[in-house]
Structures are given as C-alpha cells and as structure tokens.
Amino acid sequence: MTENLTKESFFEKVFNYEENKEWKFEGEIPAIIDFYADWCGPCKMLAPVLEQLSEEYEGKIHIYKIDTEAEQELSAAFGIRSIPSMLFCPIGEDPQMANGALPKNQIEQIIADVLKVKK
C-alpha cells in the first residue's frame, strides 16, 4: 500500500533537511518517493503500477507519494520540475531521481540496481 506523506511525515520517515545538511535517510528499509499531482495524466498511469509494486515488495521497500500541489516546499527542496518524478532512496547511499512515468519493468530494474532489493 502506498502512503501519502506531508512535510512532517517526510521529515520523520525519509529525510529532515532542516536539521541535516547532508542526506540522512531515516527509513529502516529502502523507499521510493513518487512526486505527483492529481491533474497529471502520466501520474495517474503510474499510480496503479506503484500500488502493484508496493504489494509485490511488501516488507522490502516503502512506496511514498507526495502531492506536489499540497507540498510545494518538499517539491522545491528536491528541485522537482517535471512530474511524475521518483526519488529512489537506498540504505546508506545517496538517493537517485528518475523522471517520467516509467514502465513497471524499468522501475523493477532500478529497485534491483539502486535499492539493491530482489523480489
């Protein structure tokens, strides 16, 4: 199940950029953060794919969603210019950004390569 984040829950579960200048991931397992908007067509196409992945990788990765309209400060903090954009957050390494509504197999490849998680 994907979970929507606010700035407060983002600070708690992902990264508190007001306290930490350097990236410090707060999660216990890797995460994908989907930056989206309700009006965005490609975002709507990506949503069911992320729901599927959240079930298939349950307990191995978290999938969070951030509404760029509601959480403009978070979007600005990560320089989000186009949506959908996904931030892949591995444990102990810097996050990597991917832009666009990627197909499921490509997201799975990034999960394996960047997050180092196998199904």
From TrEMBL:
Record's keyword terms, sorted: Disulfide bond, Electron transport, Redox-active center, Transport
NCBIfam families the record matches: thioredoxin (TIGR01068)
Claim: Nucleotide-binding is one of the keywords in the record: no
Gene: trxA
InterPro entries named in the record: Thioredoxin (IPR005746), Thioredoxin-like_sf (IPR036249), Thioredoxin_CS (IPR017937), Thioredoxin_domain (IPR013766)
Organism this protein belongs to: Tenacibaculum polynesiense
Top-rank taxon: Bacteria
Keyword Transport in annotation: yes
Residue ranges of domain Thioredoxin in the record: 1-116
Protein name per the record: Thioredoxin
Family: Belongs to the thioredoxin family.
A Pfam family the protein falls into: Thioredoxin
Signal sequence bounds: none
